Amino acid sequence: MTIKELERLYAAGRWSAKLQEQCRSDTRAGVQKLVRRWEREAQERARVEALYRYEFLAREKGCTLVAGVDEAGRGPLAGPVVAAAAILPVGLFLPHLNDSKKLSASAREQLFSAILESAVAVEIVSISEKIIDEKNIYQATKQGMCEAVAALKPQPQRVLIDAVPLQLSMPSLSLVHGDAKSASIAAASIVAKVARDRLMLAYDEEYPQYGFGKHKGYGTAEHLDALRKYGPCPIHRRTFEPIRSMAT
To answer: pLDDT value at position 248?
Structure first.
């Protein structure tokens, strides 16, 4: 076959393992490019499939609706903490799905759209800086996670949680570094991160002097300099240092 014919087969999803073996010995540069591409994509499929380990275990116990839940924004000095819960079709292949912290902003945006389009259900909950100050960040995070799970339709039969133990009406499992171990938690982490980043970009327009669009509220040198110069704004967390000391 010509390289064009092979490219059409590849584009149509008709590149088989048998064809891959046949093409390994083909010395044409264009063919070898397709061989290497297939190998990279096969590795990525295997990596993403491994992220469904806990979802597959749940399905073996009869749970077909498994949710992952995670949060973004526990550490910043300003803005809300955002929780997200997501139910994925078990085994759904989302290329580059991973812990949101390991992804670029553009990759997160692409996956955010893919997750919302492909998921069985997704819910996002924002807990304001005022509630964070009233309850503390840990309790506010748990509140957001519980509300996100409770809002899912349909309700999950089992919930996988990133690190934080929750009291839920259905069985759950808390996984340390769960966003790197579970596809559902990874999806939730991406949704929460993108949703929160978008909120902080909106706040950047409202309070441009703080640079929220760059640091998203985290305590960078730029942010701390702005705090010393302008003092806290309405979305700063009053119980977090150094804002707490500034208010006394």
So the answer is: 61
- 103 near 193, Cβ under 8 Å? no
Whether the upstream peptide bond of residue 242 has omega within 30° of 0, thus cis, is: yes
**Residue 161, phi then psi, degrees to nearest 5:** -120, 140
Give this prediction's pTM. Answer: 0.89
Going by C-alpha positions, the residue among 52, 50, 64, 69 that lies closest to residue 173 is 69
C-alpha to C-alpha distances, 243 to 139, 223, 235, nearest whole angstrom: 20, 11, 11
pLDDT digits (tens, 9 = 90+) for 110-169: 999 999 999 999 999 999 999 999 999 999 999 999 999 999 999 999 999 999 999 999
> What is the pLDDT, as a whole number, of residue 48?
95
pLDDT under 70: residue ranges of the chain: 247-248
Strands across the sheet with 158-162, in order? Answer: 121-127, 81-87, 66-72, 158-162, 172-175
